[in-house]
Structures are given as C-alpha cells and as structure tokens.
Amino acid sequence: MEKVLNLVIFLPLFGALLIGIFRKEKLSKFIALSFSLLVFLLSLYLFINFDFSRGGFQFLTHTKWIESLGIGYRVGLDGMGVFLVLMTSLLFLCAFLWSLKVEDRVNLYFALFLILETSCLGVFSALDFFLFYIFWEGMLIPMYFIIGFWGHERKVYASNKFFIYTFFGSVFLLLGIATLLVYYYLQRHTLSFNYFDYLSLNFPLKLQLLLFLLFGIGFAVKIPMFPFHTWLPDAHVEAPTAGSVILAGVLLKMGTYGFVRYSLTLFPEASKFYTPLIFTLSVIAIIYASMMAIAQSHIKRLIAYSSIAHMGVVTLGTFAQDPQALEGAIYMMIAHGLSSGALFMGAGFIYDRLHTYEIKELGGLAKFIPVFAVFFMLSGLASIGFPGLAGFIAEFLVFLGTFKNYPVWAFIGGFGVVLSAAYFLYMYKRALLEYELIGEEKISKFSKLRDLEAHHIIPFTLIIVSAFLLGLYPHPFVKFAQHTANLIFNG
To answer: Which residues on adjacent β-strands are paired with residue 72?
Structure first.
C-alpha cells in the first residue's frame, strides 16, 4: 500500500517529464489529464482503504537518503493527510479539465501544474523536515510562473508579491527547522530530520515559544492570516482561473495543515500560550475580510477576501483546544477547498465569456446562461455554509467546539460567518439577477453568450457533488478528521 502513496506523489512529476520530452500540445493535454485522473483514482483508493482502527500514520515509507545528516525519504498519512491528498488530487483534476481550451504555451502550462501537484501532495505526506521543506518550497516556482505567464494585466506585480511574501515566510520556517535540528543534536548527539524523533522530545517552554513563532510566521503567511494577507487578493485577481483554483483550494491549506501537524504536536504549551493572539488575529480576519468583501466590485477580489475570512474560521477551530473544534477546522479545510475552487471557476467562466470581472458591468446573466447560474449559486451556498453542504458541517463543529471553552470568541466569529451570506448574495443578485435593470445594449450582448460546455460542467459537477456528499452524509468523512484529533489530544 505504501507504494501507492509514492505513486500518488511522483506520478505528476513523471507526467511533467514526459511533456518536456514530447512537447506536443495535444499530447501534453492528454498526459496531464490522464496522469491527474490516475492520481485521483489512486488517492481515492488510499482514502477508501484507510484503517480507522489503527492509530498513527499509515502507508509509511522510510528510505535512507543522506544518512550522515539524518535525512531520509519518509512519507505517510493520517486521517487529515489522506483527506487533503484526496481533495488536492480532485482539484488538480478539475483544473486540468477546465484548462483543456488553453492555447498559450500549452506544454509549459501543463508541465508547471503537474510539478505543482507533486509539491502539494508531498507537503501533505512528508514526515521528514528536510523533505517537507523541499516540497514546501517546490510549489513556489511553478505558481510564480503560472501567475506571471498566464495572469492578467498586473500579473508581474502579483507574481513578484506572491514570491516575496511566501519566501519571507519560508525563511522563518527554515530558521525554525534549523533550531529544532540544533536542539535535537544537543540532546541526542546525533542529527535527525525524522518527524517522529521530535515527538519524543519535551521542549522547554521558552524554546517552544520561539519555535512556535518561527514556524507560525511561515504558516501564517501561507494561509494567509491577518496581517500577512495582502498578497492574496492581488495574486487571485491576476492569476488564471486554474491557478486561482489551486491557490485557494490547496496552497492556503498548507499553512493550516502546518499548524495542526507541527505546532499543536511539537509545541503544545506554546500553542496554548499564543491562543489569545491567534484568536484575535483570526477574528480580525473573519470580520475585516468579510467587510472588505462586501465593499468589492471585482468578483475575484471579493472571493479572495472571502477565502481570508474562511481561513480565519479554520485557525479559530485549530487553536480552540477542543477535539470537535479541531475536527471542524480540518473539515473546513476540505469544504473551503471545494467551494472556493468552484467559485473561482465561476468567476473565470464569466471572464472567458465577457472579459470582465466587474460586477457593475454584469446583471441578468441567469436568463442567458441558466446552467451556469445554477452551478454558481450552489458554489456560493457551499461557501456560506448552507445546510446540506460541507461548509455547514465544518462551521457547526468549529463553533460548537470553540463555544465550550471560548463562548465570546465563538460568538464574534459566528457573526462574521453571517456576513459571508451578505456579500455572496449581494454579488449574485447584482451579477446574475436584476434582468429588468440592464439596458438593450447588454441584452443584445448577453443573448449571444454560450452556456457551460462539457469541460466546464464536469469539474463543476465533481466539486458540487462532493460538497453535497460531505454535507448530507458527513459521518464517514468526519472520521478522518477525528483520527487526527485523537492523535493530537490523546497521543
């Protein structure tokens, strides 16, 4: 079974190499789509065969690499990891399907996305700090070029800002790993990058406080938490549709994954100490980003701010010191990954048809592209946590668990969730309804629009069906979040 996980991680990279060898545009699209489909099916196989009766990590592989430095190839998955790997493979499959009509530098486009997929899957699987950091940094280059080459008017500015912010956070993460390594050497007189070796150490509180900050800044930039959030709206606005889908759906989850995997397990006392700070920043993000979303006239910028608000809910649940809240935070990672991916696909479809993201230039679109209007509405309902969809289960668990220990924080955070309904419904009303308010010129223009095509409908359907499945029948899926929560709270 461990060989399957290794295939999941490196098949996309192999696909990128094949694209580099053959360099045929149609073949490149076929290779990318075929390999992403295979990775998704293998991820689904791991997901189905995950054994909840066993504690700890599964599908483990441990191979010596740079033995003199204690570096090894170590990968494995717990409940949260296998859940995120499945979501990542699904969103990349949707991104490739959506991109079948791309005509600009096709070979490079699909090769970069495949490299990015390997990096993302590696982050969620790595159990060696050296390997984790390689995968963590590995996603930076392909996403930089994806935004810079296939983005919109201010793409160079946005890609540079994304690179600088992310690299800034990575420097602190590297310092944290180096500090860990030195402390381990002083304690055990040997070098090791093995994650499990560090679980047996009891770090003194002062060292935990320092390490939490070093790791935390790296994770906070990636999420992004307030006040490190300013790169995200620019990156989303300028990124191509598939880039925004992966950026919101997958890359943001790396930061919250890092908090759960490393901060809560290695620095538990520091996590409790910094809880008031994390809560303050989370609530500011929820309220501030929601208010900013209401003020936007640009669809992608509105969705970008909504992502900041939803990730604030994730960090709130992560540090609530309650198993249910943590389960909700993990579930929210998945729910937001699905809904934000669908919303950015919707924004991208509008741009493809009308070459604008400005809400004021739209109106009454539901009459002319009704199939899209239905899918976009369902995507928005999933985002705002409508009952029957995945977001509702996630938010319910987060606020239920947080209310036990921090009722005031839960109430304030919950108010921000109400705002999410306000900005989405307002945007939907302005962009797709209000037919009676648009003039004859727009009616003539919009009447020529083509509705969703097959390469749009399939990814929309995959995501919406998944959101309904997680919302209507959450029990088997919550178990994956419970598996990780049990590891953290029960050892």
So the answer is: 64
Its sign, for the CA torsion 264, 268, 269, 270, is: negative
How far is the CA of 402 from the CAs of 285, 422, 432, in angstroms?
17, 23, 36
The residues near 1 (Cβ < 8 Å, ≥ 6 apart) are 46, 49, 58, 59
What is the sign of the dihedral through the CA atoms of 9, 12, 16 and 17?
A: positive
- Answer yes or no: pTM beyond 0.90: yes
* Residue recorded with tokens 């196989």: 45
> Cα separation of 205 and 189, whole Å?
21
Name the token pair of 252. 């943001």
CA distances from 190 to 178, 181, 199, 387 (A): 14, 9, 16, 53
Cis peptide before 227 (omega within 30 of 0): yes
Q: Read off the pLDDT of residues 156-211 as tens digits, 9 standing for 90 and up.
A: 998 899 889 998 999 999 999 999 999 999 888 888 899 998 988 888 999 999 99
The whole-angstrom separation of Cα 354 and Cα 346 is 12
